Amino acid sequence: MTAQYQVQGDIAVITLDNPPVNGLGLSTRQGIADGMARANADSTVKAIIITGAGKAFSGGADIKEFGSDKAMQEPNLNSVIGVLENSAKPVIGAIHSVVMGGGLELALGCHYRIAAPGTSVALPEVKLGLLPGAGGTQRLPRVLGVEAALNMIVSGEPVKSEMLAMLPGQKLFDKLAASADSLADEAMAFARSVADVRPLPLVRELKCKHPQGDAYFQFARNMVKGMSKNFPAPVKCVDAVEAATKKKFDDGMAVEREIFINLMWTPESKSLRHLFLSERAASKIPDVPADTEQRVINSIAVIGAGTMGGGIAMNFLNAGIPVRMLEMKQEALDRGVATIRKNYEAQVKKGKLKQDKYDQRMALLSTTLSYDDLTGTDMVIEAVFEELGVKEAVFKELDRVMKPGAILASNTSTLDVNKIASFTQRPQDVVGLHFFSPANVMKLLEVVRGEKTGKDVMATVMTIAKKIRKTAVVSGVCDGFIGNRMIEQYGRQGGFLLDEGCTPAQVDKAMEKFGMAMGPFRMGDLAGNDIGWAIRKRRYQEKPNMKYSKTADLLCEKGRFGQKTGAGWYDYVPGKRDAIPNADVVSMIEEHRKSLGITPRKISDEEIVQRLVFSLVNEAAHILEEGIANKASDIDIVYIFGYGFPAHRGGPMNYADQVGLFNVVQAMNRFAQNPLDDAAFWKPAPLLERLAAAGKTFN
Ligand code: NAI
Fold first, then answer.
1. What CATH number is given for 3-264 in this structure?
2. What DSSP state is assigned to residue 58?
3. For the chain, what are the domain ranges?
4. Which of 185, 195, 311, 547 is the most exposed place for a label (fewest CB within 10 A)?
5. How far, in Å, from the CA of 225 to the mean position of ligand 1?
6. Which neighbouring-strand residues pair with 381?
7. Is 41:81 a contact under the CB 8 Å cutoff?
């Protein structure tokens, strides 16, 4: 049972006990209902307290039941709330730490609520493309007022209990306890004080009105629409709260229910729920058990204080872990430290970082020119030039000085991690940690598992990733790992589209309308077109038969490397990121097209999106089949957190699943007929073909 029942004198206490956050799974709901029945049947009990064990009152729905029929199985949450409301004896919610989603809805079914200060209160369902489905949209406005409640429901953001307790006229909390420690005693005293008070107050019986009525809701709807263009749920939250002000309680509940069910079926909500579960699943590695013994990492060294080294160091400083940076020259160290300082100072200026925090972080940073200073360090991350010879020298030095058991990581973006490991006598300690630029901002971390990387090393770096607030995905060793290997195909399709008749702006606009944070050409300008150029030059040697558009090379020959040179596919004004189309680039594309004898055709946005997204999908299917990625959902996470793929599409694999793999394969076969495209590439990957034929999905 995941809810405990106890009687203390004349008060019954039901304690939710379903770690980690007392999720309201079936057995917890049953436990509450059973406890309520016992308390009501026991003539010595005068009042009932509901509270949570451990670190939460309740975090809401149980993740394990998420999206399954079990979540609806009786007693479902609405029925349990009905049991509380219909109790003949007063029910008091003793709330602390976290009260979210269904947990808050449960609390709103109690007759009284007493909260500890510091409690995080939220209805976060909107973040999963839903709205609260157990009366949250109807009860919260009744206790907080329409505007405060709507803000919470539409944003899903947590608000602290002491802030809510200060709202004029609020009825969410009958009492704010002096502290979390005194909550239990204060709840007990409160319960005794109301034990004989009748009638029992019910939130559902409170009035709910907004003085401006229609005008307010019109305004709210416009605001919310503007802020959530790809998501239907936030506007629906407004509809549900409006119903609370206009309809009788039970009719308002019916409106909420209907909206909830409709949202549940939207592709947006399915994608967001997929993303939520995928993020949790990403940290699990099939052959590395959860109880694998981990290494202790209390200090970090970073080799190379350049663009990546500085950003990587900041991640650890932010997490309170000391960092020592090593360079070959003092000037390089000084430059690296100055950049870190500048980044933090900008945050202080914007009020995002307190001065004392900034001081603490800088105090954790030290520098050295000598490898001998790294002997006591638990883990080192190399971020020197991307040249195998340079990496070899560094790893030989690390092998010489680092203590046994230290983890040796490389931030290489293209080199073979197995080869890097072979430069040492301890390949089991070597792992790739591929951060994305800017490393202190981007959430994604590809953890590259070498052939010999130890399981304990894998387990340890996944934990470290969490500590520095990264979403880590495991990749096997291959050229480009998961993300960049796929983006190469995407870039190739982008080139063909230009040759066949598109402008960069047309392609970018189509992809941005699809939801990408940035189209491929704006992204190229941001990352630096010279990087892709260098990779292509290598490919021309390695894969002479691979088909490429030469347009991007022509652009690079003009020195148009992107934002850093003020000119790429677009022009840039210093200090601004706006991409301004350039007529010379467009005529360069046209002339090249002419030289190839191609008559341009009008290409639809739909074709642009399909060719670019399905190129990712086909390469990803190869990646999955080769075991480079452990699961399709990991690939979705890589693209959403590392490449600006729209969350409401749930990642490329989820999107392909939603389109239907049969349709995806059909489209690929069509693309293969285009003589200007690469027919060999569009041969569907065997895995994709099998799944499509069997009517299955990736996820
Ligand atoms: P960078 O050129 O900005 O920095 C490299 C730094 O390493 C320089 O400060 C240099 O002085 C130092 N260095 C070179 N050889 C050294 C040695 N033997 N010992 C100590 N320090 C040495 O380069 P960036 O962009 O920071 O890249 C570093 C690594 O990160 C490369 O492997 C790159 O492929 C990888 N990477 C880069 C990304 C990016 O977007 N820039 C993204 C992900 C990975």
1. 3.90.226.10
2. B
3. 3-264, 300-475, 483-693
4. 185
5. 43
6. 302, 409
7. no
